[in-house]
């Protein structure tokens, strides 16, 4: 078999009506396409088997995780060129790559010739087993306690040392706040945590609940800089172990506690303030109303909630929303995104008054690029601490997510909400500047 790249390029052009916008190199050493820019490398024809047996996003993802395809050169430019092959928003309820549409269409009887050509190039074979990094089949009802623990473990219990390479010393796994684009990642994460503390109006002696506390960074910041007493909850055993270690090393165990506990199991309110930072994406649409009501019930009258959450764009037909197969199988099993308006409405339905919404979309793009740089700079160690497949998952999803934020396909927002008193008092200063731009309490 010779000139596999040329044959594949011809198939793509036939299917899309235009050439693939980046160079292609196949397993036989042949190349085709533009002479400059990134190169899409197909290292093994098993990648074609995956696409033949599972056309679409999941087949591509499995080939990437298995190391059978890769992008040489600028990863972001390569992904951007591929993502440029999209349906027009006016023609489709969802923005999906036309390349994936074409791959999925291989099963259509009208495309038997194209499917036959792909199979002829791939050669006869049974479908390859999915890479072991793929999440095992879901267990139990969607967003049950047991299933959520399993989903969270898949993503977060992959080694604290691995996460420290990616996240850096701050150990914060959510969008940073880049007051200056030239800031370090650590400074930007410190600024984000401080912004949240100021929005919550934290004061010495208050009681803070951090839902989905991760490795304890928000709890540590609030205790050390604002003098609060804090409870952090997570359902990741590995996160909790490191968070407790960090609290002990900082001498904060008398003022802070880390629990392995689901938000639905918390029964020792009320709290003066609640932070939920990058956790609500795991809640799911079916449970979100209950999530909002539980947090409302855990707050004192006049208490504030800071809900920091990724949002997707609204669809003309919300019933057309589809879960991203790559993200669901390899990154965040059972994760769901909702438009920011939906989130705000559900918080208000639970009894909250929404007082402030701040969009941080561009900030998350910068954060993700910093994480990708950390991973690439420590690639050998990262693959040793986990697996090469796991490292490839993280590199792809973080780089693709950075582009998604830059292209305004997804966003991230901080919603500040208040549980007002029975008289409707929010117990907030009269101007935004008075509660947002006050200095730290340390």
TrEMBL record:
Entry keyword Calcium: no
Domain Polyketide synthase-like methyltransferase: 162-421
Keywords: Lipid metabolism, Methyltransferase, S-adenosyl-L-methionine, Transferase
CDD domains assigned: AdoMet_MTases (cd02440)
InterPro entries per record: CFA/CMAS, CMAS, MeTfrase_dom, SAM-dependent_MTases_sf
Superkingdom in the source lineage: Bacteria
GO terms, biological process: methylation
GO molecular function, one term: methyltransferase activity
Family: Belongs to the CFA/CMAS family.
Protein name: Class I SAM-dependent methyltransferase
Origin species: Streptomyces filamentosus
